[in-house]
Specification:
This protein is α/β, with parallel strands linked by helices and 234 residues long. It has eight helices and six strands. Strands 1-3-2-4-6-5 form a six-stranded mixed sheet.
Amino acid sequence: MASPTRQLEGLNAQVIECRRCPRLVEWRERVSIEKRASFIGHDYWGKPVPGFGDPNGAVLVLGLAPAAHGANRTGRMFTGDRSGDWLYRAMYRAGFANQETSVSAGDGLKLKGAYVTAPVRCAPPANKPTSAEHDNCAPWLDAELDILDGISVAVCLGQIAYVAALAAYQRRGVAVPRPRVKFGHGVEVRLSPQLTLLTSFHPSQQNTFTGRLTESMLDDVFQRAKALASPRTA
């Protein structure tokens, strides 16, 4: 069997070619042509964004979807926007990243012990994918989890990521608590002796500018993820 690295390379090649959601295809491509004024000279990625990180990691970081002028521009999850600035600084401080900045796909950022992905791979209008778009994208996350078989902690950035993680693991036959544990920052949900979900407010500007999420709060989540993860992340 091919290594996890080779398997992910093959999967990501398929992800990049996906055109299952006409609304998202139209939006991501239009944004890449019209561009934001501050990025007018940039070549936009304008395609589905694959996951990124350590194929042997024990920590999964799950966001929502690429930002129109962030990952949709750079081609790498949480790269090129302020949400990514917050995320990778926290991951760097917790020892999951070799640097605290993430500005472009070729900037030298490498992750150790962690893999970053999202339940929706295309930038959605107003950052709001539809239920059908979530469903269309779900097989990509399922395929990633098949390859990333060492995951013991899933950090869910926002309620949508939390719900998506529960659904993905339920599809894999993992028992999900009923009623569902209410989302909140720093909530832990033990799905099995080998798997824990950790929840965090999303590092969006709406949360970071208002102080709803602080850097110390995000640090606490990743330090807890590190403590819970298998020894391979140390």
